[in-house]
């Protein structure tokens, strides 16, 4: 179940250097999103298989002097299980695929926050 909250906004970070870019800007270790989730088999909920997900990460964006600017929750969406490899025989992975992360932020400071990431 999801609800639209007027007080929150979402920023999407996408690209091969997403982790490297955010690692230098945020206070928490963003590299944990690249770690393996173990031997779990499914990202989709089924009666016989538990789901796999990376918990959200709470972090803050600081000035170069270390002063607090904004806080956010960072999420990594689950990859689609139904994607097949080139032969169509089984799940595949596209190594050229961009890395996606979503940040849940306060909507009242969205424009200011976006300007910080553009610098």
What does this protein look like?
It is a single chain. With 119 residues, the protein is of the alpha+beta class. It has helices at residues 18-23, 110-118, and strands spanning 8-15, 57-62, 68-75, 99-106. It has a domain at 12-36 and 44-79 and 97-118: 2-Layer Sandwich (Alpha-Beta Plaits), CATH 3.30.70. It is built from two helices and four strands.
Briefly summarize what is shown.
The chain is α+β, with helices and mostly antiparallel strands and 119 residues long. The protein is 13% helix and 25% strand. One of its GO terms (cellular component) is mitochondrial matrix.
The Rg value, from CA coordinates, equals 17 Å
Q: Which class of secondary structure composition applies to the elements?
A: alpha+beta
Mean pLDDT: 77
Q: So, the CATH homologous superfamily of the domain at 12-36 and 44-79 and 97-118?
A: Aminomethyltransferase beta-barrel domains
Number of separate helices = 2
Total beta strand runs? 4
Segments where pLDDT lies below 50 for 5+ residues?
A: none
The CATH architecture of the domain at 12-36 and 44-79 and 97-118 can be given as 2-Layer Sandwich
**Roughly how much helix do the residues carry, as a percent range?**
10-25%
GO cellular component, one term: mitochondrial matrix
InterPro entries: TrmE/GcvT-like, YgfZ/GcvT
Protein name: Glycine cleavage t-protein family
């Amino acid at each position: 179940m999801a609800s639209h909250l007027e007080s929150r906004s979402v920023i999407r970070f996408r690209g091969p250097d997403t982790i490297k870019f955010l690692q230098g800007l945020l206070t928490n270790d963003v590299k944990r999103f690249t770690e393996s989730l173990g031997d779990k088999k499914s990202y989709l909920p089924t009666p016989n298989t538990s789901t796999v997900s990376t918990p959200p990460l709470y972090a803050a964006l600081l000035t170069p002097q270390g002063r607090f600017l904004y806080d956010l929750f960072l999420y990594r969406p689950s990859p689609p299980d139904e994607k097949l490899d080139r032969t169509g025989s089984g799940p595949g992975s596209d190594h050229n695929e961009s890395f996606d992360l979503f940040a849940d932020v306060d909507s009242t400071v969205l424009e200011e926050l976006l300007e910080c990431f553009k610098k």
